[in-house]
Structure formats: C-alpha cells, structure tokens
Design a protein that fits this description.
This protein is an alpha/beta fold. It has five domains: 97 residues, no CATH class; 170 residues, von Willebrand factor, type A domain (Rossmann fold), CATH 3.40.50; 96 residues, Sandwich (Immunoglobulin-like), CATH 2.60.40.10; 201 residues, 3-Layer(aba) Sandwich (Rossmann fold); 75 residues, Sandwich (Immunoglobulin-like), CATH 2.60.40. It contains 13 helices and 36 strands. It has a nine-stranded mixed beta sheet. Strands 6-3-7-8-35 form a five-stranded parallel beta sheet, sandwiched between helices. α2 runs antiparallel to α13, α3 packs antiparallel against α4 and α7 packs parallel to α8. It is elongated. It starts with a strand and ends with a helix. The mean pLDDT is 84.
Length: 686
C-alpha cells in the first residue's frame, strides 16, 4: 500500500489525545461503609472491571477513528503497475490513431468513433484541472500545446480519418518530446489508442520510460470486413511509346471470406475509359489482371484503375501518370571520316519516332547530354576524361549508352569509362573469326524481333573483337553470344540507366553485322527503348520527400508550387536541394488526398504527379490485446500495460490505472464506523 499525500501521516500523533483523555479523566471512586462488607466488595470488583473494559473499547474506537481519518487525507492506494504516483498534478498525453484502418466497422460501431469515446472517458477520469496533450497522425504544431479538459473534448470531436499513419514507437517518442517541452513537475501518463496493426506496432522500438507510464488501448476489429482492394499497378515494358499497345498489370487483393464473380474493373486514361475487364476472384486470394490499350498521342497521360466495393472505399482506386515523348532524342558520336555513321543516318534520320543527331568526336558539347535519351559511340579511338565523366553521369541519371569500340582503340581509355560504370573490362583484342549464335530471346531488345525461336539463323560474323574480363561488381546480361561463349553484346544496369556494350567495331572490314537483318531491329530497339525513368505514382506518407529528375534545358524557378489537378489552389513548396538535374521537394503534410496534382517547377516546366493512399492500412492484420500483453512481457517493457477495451467496465479500469486501487473511501467508512461504535458503547453500555 502506498500514499498519494504521505505528508498527512505525521497527524497520527493525534492518537495521543484520546489516550491522554483516557488516563487523565478516569472515574474516581468514593468509599462507602456498609455492614455486609463482603457482599459489597464483590459488587465493587465486578463494576470496576466492566467500566475499565468499556473505557478501553472507547479508547480503541477513538484511536482507530483518528488513524482512519488520517489515512483518508493521505489517500492510500494499491498501484496496478510499476509506476508510482509522486505528484498531485497530472499531465496526460493521448494518441488517437486516425488512419484509414480505423474506419472499419465492428459490432460497437466504427473504430475511430470508439477511439474518440475511449479518449473522452480518459479525459473525464481526471480532475478538471488536469492538463492534456493530444496527438493524431498529422502531428501538427498545434498538437504540442497544453489543453484543458474542455479543449481536449472539443478537439476530439474534430478528429477525422487521415491517409497518414505513425509507427507506434514514433507516436510514443513524439508524445515524450512534447511532454519534455512542457517542463512541468507533474505525474505524466501516455495513452496510445489504436487498432494496433502489425506493420505499425513496432514494440521493440518503444522506450521503457521510467519517468512516465505508457498505456496501450487496443481496439481490435471483432467482425471481419469484406474488402476488395487494388494493391498496385505496373507496366509490362519500361517505357511508353506513341501508337504502341501498352500492357498494364493490376494486382487485386480479396480480403473477404466471399468470392466475387464478373466484377468490372475499369481503366481510364485522361478521363476516357480505355479498357474494362471482368474480375472473378476467390476468397482471401490475390490476382493479377492485364489491361491493354494504346497511347494515341504524345504528352502527359493520367491513368485511373477503379472498381466498386463497399464499405471500405479508399483503396478502390489507383492513380498513375506518365509522359509519352513524341520522339526519342538520339545522339551518335563518331570518329571523323568514319563511314559507320552513314548506317545510323540511314536508319534514324527520317524516322517519325526518332529525333536523330550526330557529332564528331572533336565537336562534342557535353552540356547537352541530359537532353538525349540514347547515345551511340561509334568506333572511337579513345575518350577524353571530360567525355568519360559526362557519359558516366548521363547513364547514371537514366540514359542509355551503346558502345561500338574502335579498331586498335586505346584500351585504357575505354576501361577508364567501364571502371566508373562498374562493368566488365577489356583484356585484349582478338582477331579470331567468330560467329554470333546465342540469342537471348527474352531480352527486351529481341522480344518482338522474332516470331519464334530459330535454330538455323544466318547470323553476323566477326573477325576482330575484344575479350572482356568479368567484374565482380557488374550485373551483366548477355544479349547475343559468340560461338566461343564470349559475349557479342552485353547489357548492364547502371544507376537509373543502362549500358549496351558491343565487343566488336561497327566496321565493314571486320564484320558483316550492318548487312545482316538483325542490325536494323536491334539498333532501332536500342533507340526506341531508351526512356528516362518515370515514377508513375507516389505513396502518401508522413514527411514525404520527392526527388524529381529534370531536363537540363528546362530551368527550375526559385519558387515552385503544387496544386490539385484543374484547381487553382497552389501551395508553395520547400526545395531541399537542387543538383545533378534533380530537385528534392519537401511535401510534409501537404498531400492528403489521393489523385492528380500539378507540380509547377517554372512557368515553362510543369509535371503531373499521381498520389495514392498507403495500402498497408488495408493489408496488415491487427494484434489482439492478449498478444500485446505477451509482447510487453517478453520485451521487458515494465512501465507499459494493456487495457483491453472488451473489459466489462472500461471506466473502472481507467480509474484503477490512473489512481491505482484507491482505499481512502474505505478508511472514511471505517472512521464513521469507529465513531458510531464509540457512541453506542458510551450510551448503551450500563
């Protein structure tokens, strides 16, 4: 047993008052003589014993009444957790999870409304003078201010669902920081009210704070909610092209116990329905659905995949956006007076999908590299350090680089580039006659070249090539192989871009590659499949930071803004940094609604971005109260406890948690009983 106000215990010294009264005011006897003395002696002894017993019982009642009354003011209690109550003033911090998962319905109503009701019960369980802090998933600056009980109740009523979510450990740390900022000498208690989904309940990261207790109040869903959701979307091929059929894949999850038959799934591009597919899916399974359509024009495209499902509706839509270029810009860098450039000119110069440019090795403008999607190096003898660095940055930022090494080229010069790109290195030149024979039909460059695999193709021959040594850092994919198992064409992912490396020169004196049928589709696909990487969608989250790649010819203004699509409500954004043709933008708590947004980087440079809600809210299960208790015990989080909302009396459980099992009322009853007993003994005992 412990006391809230132990300073009242010295008042126990007042028990000396009834003791002194007892000894100083005892009844005096007068001697009276009678003739029959023996008979009177017996009566006298019996009367004295009864009177002494009466006075002793009265003394005990008075002493016990004083002791019980002192205990009433000292307010004894039995603590129900490890946290003792040392201070009369209390500062209470409450976290209410208002993520989308709290919209689930149970037999008792929506989880969010239950959470607000529990927070209200907590507020009412404290004295009116108690100070409160309230935190939701938005973590707004206003939530760092102390609230009265009335202000807390008002703010609880204004809480609504939000796409943001906080890990449990972060919510606790934010509340601890907010409590520390108050610098008050008060007893502090933290309440975390949530459905405790597994992905956010990182108990191992929580603090075992000895200065304050943390109380977990789980609100598990007692009834399963039928939910069909669009988990994600992706394209089958890496780039978007005009007039090419696109294959969009959609992953759909069925989290209910019922099957769905012939449910329509719609695809809209720029607000026009492009495809509809009927979905049939079994209970608690996922399915990938293919939707095909064509991009009929260049420019920005806004895509939306949607289905109809209730009662959970926030995950029924998936937004995405992308750009389709009118033409891919291709640059060929060639050795002066090398006729190989004529092969590429004949292939690309008048093509409607390719914007082809050429430059000699001595007239290169390195600053214009970011404007191109694909660069060909044709038979260069050597490369300068400036060209090597520019090509390295070009590839890592998302460009596609194709290399034909020259005859008797400076191997050290080429290896300097390969080292920076972390790909295979040239060992030596080889004049052996070789023939191409191994084709990787699954590679994107060859997927649509052949109707089916052929075993007797007439493939190019080479009598001058370079041998490469495999690097431990490279991620080589062989596209075409020689008959000696060496690679004729290799692909390497580098940063955001790729390197396509031929091991032979594009020279008619050493190979017939340019005269073979394979030449045209292979090089055409290299140019056509060179795309700047695009993020087709972004996920709404706390502290969201976007990295946007930029074209070097489109400058970025000092002030940039974002606004909902087709709405004139721009919000100024903070640019964290701007370097290497990339801009990092802080979107903290700005994007809260899924959909399309217009990002204005400059008057001439705007982008359309798509934002979606986090699907973890739909996919993650909850942790029951019993399991939470077990996790706390195994994690040795001694200053935390769980209050199960299913308990018969939540208010009683909160009262006991706040104040322990209070005993003062029992001692008050004892005080009254002892006083009543004293009165009865004094009046009725004859």
């Amino acid at each position: 047993m412990r006391f809230i106000y132990p300073e009242f215990l010295p008042a126990l010294l007042f028990i000396s008052i009834p003791i002194l009264i007892h000894f100083l005011h005892f009844k005096r006897y007068k001697t009276v003589y009678f003739s029959q003395v023996n008979f009177l002696k017996t009566i006298k002894e019996e009367t004295r014993k009864k009177n002494n017993l009466k006075q002793l019982l009265i003394l005990i009642c008075r002493v016990m009444a004083v002791i019980a009354l002192v205990f009433v003011f000292a307010q004894p209690y039995f603590p129900v957790n490890q946290q003792e109550r040392h201070k009369a003033r209390q500062l209470i911090a409450i976290y209410v999870d208002n993520s989308f998962s709290m919209k689930r319905e149970t037999a008792s109503g929506m989880l969010l409304e239950q959470a607000k009701s529990k927070a209200l019960s907590i507020a009412n369980s404290y004295w009116p003078g108690t100070s409160f802090l309230l935190l939701t998933n938005q973590n707004e600056p206003s939530q760092q201010q102390l609230l009265t009980q009335a202000q807390l109740i008002s703010q609880l009523g204004a809480i609504s669902e939000s796409p943001e979510s906080l890990p449990l450990s972060k919510a606790q740390k934010l509340l601890i920081n907010n409590l520390d900022k108050q610098k008050l000498k008060a007893e502090e208690v933290i309440y975390l009210i949530s459905d405790f989904q597994e992905y956010a309940s990182d108990l191992s990261e929580m603090e075992n704070d000895t200065n304050r207790s943390t109380i977990l109040i789980p609100l598990p869903s007692t009834t399963s909610t039928n939910n069909l959701l669009i988990d994600s979307c992706w394209f089958e091929t890496p780039g978007r092209q005009k007039n090419r059929e696109e294959a969009l894949w959609v992953r759909i999850q069925n989290q209910s116990g019922q099957s769905y038959q012939n449910l329509p799934v719609r695809l809209k591009i720029n607000d026009t329905i492009k495809a509809i597919s009927n979905l049939s899916i079994e209970p608690e399974t996922s399915q990938n659905l293919e939707l095909r359509y064509k991009n009929n024009r260049a420019g920005t495209h806004r895509g939306l995949v949607e289905l109809d499902d209730y009662p959970v509706v926030y995950d029924n839509q998936f937004f995405f956006s992308y750009d389709v270029r009118a033409k891919n810009k291709v640059l060929a860098i060639y050795q002066q007076e090398d006729p190989a450039i004529n092969k590429l000119k004949a292939l690309f110069l008048n093509d409607e999908n390719i914007d082809f440019e050429q430059t000699g090795s001595k007239q290169i403008q390195l600053s214009q590299f970011p404007e191109y999607q694909c660069i060909f190096l044709l038979n260069l003898k050597e490369m300068s350090s400036g060209l090597i660095n520019a090509l390295d940055q070009f590839v890592k930022r998302g460009g596609s680089l194709s290399i034909f090494p020259g005859i008797n080229a400076n191997i050290n010069s080429y290896n300097a580039l390969y080292r920076q790109l972390k790909t295979d290195l040239i060992e030596q030149a080889d004049s052996a006659a070789l023939r191409m024979e191994a084709l990787n039909y699954n590679h994107p460059l060859l997927q649509q070249v052949f109707l089916h695999e052929e075993s007797n193709l007439d493939l190019p021959k080479v009598n001058y090539s370079y041998r490469f040594s495999r690097s431990s850092q490279s991620q080589q994919t062989q596209v075409i192989g020689f008959n000696n198992k060496q690679a004729a064409l290799s692909g390497f992912p580098v940063g955001l871009g790729s390197l396509l490396n031929f091991s032979f020169p594009l020279d008619e004196t050493v190979t017939d590659f340019a005269q073979q049928a394979l030449f045209v589709p292979l090089l055409y696909n290299m140019a056509l499949n060179s795309f700047t990487p695009q993020e087709i969608q972004h996920e709404i989250s706390n502290n969201m930071v976007l990295t946007i790649p930029q074209n070097g010819s489109a400058p970025i203004a000092n002030k940039i803004a974002i606004s909902p699509f087709h709405e004139d409500k721009p919000v100024q954004l903070s640019v964290l940094n701007n370097y290497a043709n990339q801009v990092r933008i802080d979107l903290h708590n700005i994007i809260r609604q899924a959909g399309f947004y217009q990002l204005t980087l400059s008057p001439e440079n705007t982008q359309t971005l798509a934002f979606n809600y986090n699907r973890q809210e739909s996919l993650s299960p909850t942790i029951p109260a019993e399991e939470l208790t077990n996790k706390l015990q195994t994690s040795n989080l001694n200053f935390m406890q769980v209050i199960d909302e299913k308990e018969s009396s939540f208010d009683t459980a909160i009262q006991e948690t706040n104040k322990g099992i209070e005993l003062w009322q029992y001692f008050l009853v004892l005080t009254l009983l002892f006083l009543a007993a004293e009165t009865l003994i004094a009046r009725l005992w004859k």
